[in-house]
Amino acid sequence: MAKKRKKATRASRKTGGRKSVPVGRARAQRVLEVPLAAPDLLPALDILRDPSQSVDARLEALQTIQAASFALLDFDSIRPDYIAALRQAAEDQEPELRQRALGILAREHDGFAQEALLEGLRDPAKALVRPDKALQLLSYDPHAGVYPIARDIIHTSEDESTRREALRVLAGDPASAPVIEDVLTDKSEPSAIRRMSASALHALNPDKLQRWASSAVLDTDEDADLVATGLTALTQFGDAKAIADNKQLRKRMSQLQQQGPAKIKQLARRFVKKYEL
Amino acid sequence: MQAEIQINNSTTPAARYLTWAPSPCRVRITNPAGSPAVQLRVRLGTRTNTGGGSVAFAAQAGGPYASTLTVTVPVNGQSVSFFVRGVFGKPSSGDRDVIIEARARSAPSSGNWRLLGTLPVMVRIRKNANNLTSGERTRLVAAFAQLNDQGLGRFADFREMHVNQSSPEAHGRPAFLPWHRAYLLDLERELQAVDPSVALPYWRFDQPAPSLFTPDYLGVSDALGNVQLSATNPLQFWRTDNVPGIVRRPFFDPGQAPAGLRTEAQTLALGAQYTGFRTLEGNPHGSAHTSFGGFISSIGTAARDPLFFLLHCNVDRLWAKWQLQNNRFDSGVAASYDTNNPGNKTGHNLVDTMWPWNGITTGDRPPFAPGGALASSACVNAPGPQPRVQDCFDYRGSVAAVAQMGFDYDDVG
Ligand SMILES: [Cu+2]
């Protein structure tokens, strides 16, 4: 098993593994047949399982089966075979196939997939997908197993996308609120990372997010995107009374309506209109 | 002299919304001071704000409809009824952008019509998501964000209604279309409780929708499949299942339509029998779901993506178009439904109530029923708090006016 995974990882490095592949453009004119009964899916299942088939054919077979899962009364009759085929595909040489199979399994909270993803985060040599993808897929069913790894990644990883996914996972973990708040208030962090932290903190501690939002809007040195994020949070979820009582904030809003980038002006106007200041 | 106009026979502002179907209305004189006679000729007409919708009036529900209507109204306060409907092809783009006016001659033979009363209304219609104005988009995403509210808002119920365990109530059997019609309407009414000017738009998955997949609207997917939103978009705080954000990875160029889907014309050509038409559940419906990776590509997570509701709105629109094309609004007509399907478990027969709105958690229903009864509307009474399958067919009231569900599509006239 480990050997196979190692091979897969090499393949993913070679082909990038991360690129979004708009497949099927050549098939644009052809209508994909979605069978109306589960037994009619067996040929597609065979193609999905067959490494001698082209990757395009296997991806199309996968898409057909998944589309049928939305429509077929008797889909459950092939579900065990489908899951088995997905687990096999999760370790295939083709990165796109691995990623899609793992995605479907992770959305079903499949234990095999979760374990493989965690293992890949612990030991990169065994990784079936990039760490950011692994974290994203684990976020379909975040549980204790992933939190320590994610917290570790925030401090040790230098990859922005991976750190962002770690923050996303941690948004479900109340114990991680302080870590998230640290990242949000650290102006040396990239703006995308801080914005992710704002969403995460909004989930964990909305009052804290509101307090941060007020201070970000008042801070004339703050990054424009973060000001916009703060202003959006205040407008959408703010407490009308607290805002009416905040003289400084109200004064700042009338300033922002007059000056600054167009998007900030617009947000400030929306804010003033909403709270009838 | 003053007159009061009532839309949908109601004085509440929430009732001042129109579709293409006739809305019952009333006018009465509330202050007769200065009236020259015991009854007045009152002329109903409109003034429209720029870009606003258009309405037409009639004395009877069946018409004829015209841009003005003159009715005789007693000054003693008694109401006179009339009907208003939106003019097909001319929906509103903002709240209250059509103003209904009631006027009467200032003297018996005067050419001067004096204003007795006004009432702003909206022709609220489901539109192609790709064509919404920036104002319409802003209001839509704000309403979604508010309903979601940290994943703790009313949206969580809608997310929990559409999961693997409840799938047999809604998929693979004939009530697929009626169930989702009720589901969308329930959500749309909740969005309207946040902002009454919002109508759920549809994503025409057989056409390119480049304006939809933008940072200010439903977002742009990055290589990892995370939906990127602008810092001004309130959907940046979207949260479901305790996790912020939306995962959606298109397997097609978002400037183009997904490949392999039946077009609208091909879908409408599936036949005049419901049994044939409902195979749209596989392609284009299932295929539209799986033209992405991420939330929307699995039944159990699809409802975590706001795009899912726009996708289903188009499926519902296709049904509406098919109903119109084949005259299938009457559930009593055999071809309108798959009545005798042996696979019709409870919840899929015409007379069955639908889960979760019926609150039933026993028998072969799921053991939970999120969200309670279906949201009510100030404009119409149907389909009721616990809709049956058969209550979801005659949405425009063409068989019986009481069946109107209070929504319409911009291109289904
Ligand atoms: Cu669907």
Features:
heterodimer; A: 277 residues; mainly alpha; 16 helices; elongated; disordered N terminus; B: 413 residues; alpha+beta; Immunoglobulin-like; di-copper center containing domain from catechol oxidase; five-stranded mixed β-sheet; four-stranded antiparallel β-sheet; 18% strand; globular; binds copper (II) ion
How do the strands and helices of this protein lay out in sequence?
The complex is a heterodimer of chains A (277) and B (413).
Chain A: H1 2-15, H2 42-49, H3 55-68, H4 79-89, H5 95-107, H6 111-122, H7 131-138, H8 147-156, H9 160-170, H10 177-185, H11 191-204, H12 206-218, H13 224-237, H14 240-245, H15 247-258, H16 262-275
Helix pairs in contact in A: 2-3, 4-5, 6-7, 7-9, 8-9, 9-11, 10-11, 11-12, 11-13, 12-13, 13-16, 15-16
Chain B: E1 2-6, E2 17-18, E3 23-31, E4 39-48, E5 55-58, E6 69-74, E7 80-86, E8 98-105, E9 113-123, H1 134-148, H2 155-161, H3 167-170, H4 176-194, E10 220-221, E11 227-228, E12 239-240, E13 243-244, E14 248-250, H5 264-268, H6 274-277, H7 282-289, E15 292-294, H8 299-302, H9 306-326
Parallel strand pairs in B: 2-9
Antiparallel strand pairs in B: 1-3, 3-7, 4-6, 4-8, 5-7, 8-9, 10-11, 12-13, 14-15
The complex binds copper (II) ion.
The mean pLDDT of chain B is 95
Total of helices of chain A: 16
Radius of gyration of chain A: 24 Å
Structural class of chain B: alpha+beta
What are the segments of chain B in which pLDDT stays under 50 over at least 5 consecutive residues? none
CATH architecture of the largest domain in chain B: Orthogonal Bundle
Q: What gross morphology of chain B would you assign?
A: globular
**Which molecules other than protein and nucleic acid are bound?**
copper (II) ion
Tally of structural domains of chain B:
2
Structural class of chain A: mainly alpha
Percent of residues in helices of chain A comes to 55-70%
Instruction: Give the % helix of chain B.
Output: 10-25%
The dominant shape of chain A is elongated
Rounded to an integer, what's the Rg of chain B over CA atoms?
23 Å
Query: What's the mean pLDDT score of chain A?
Result: 88
Beta percentage of chain A is: under 5%
Secondary-structure element pattern of chain A, one letter each: HHHHHHHHHHHHHHHH
Give the tally of β-strands of chain B. Answer: 15
- What's the CATH topology label of the largest domain in chain B? di-copper center containing domain from catechol oxidase
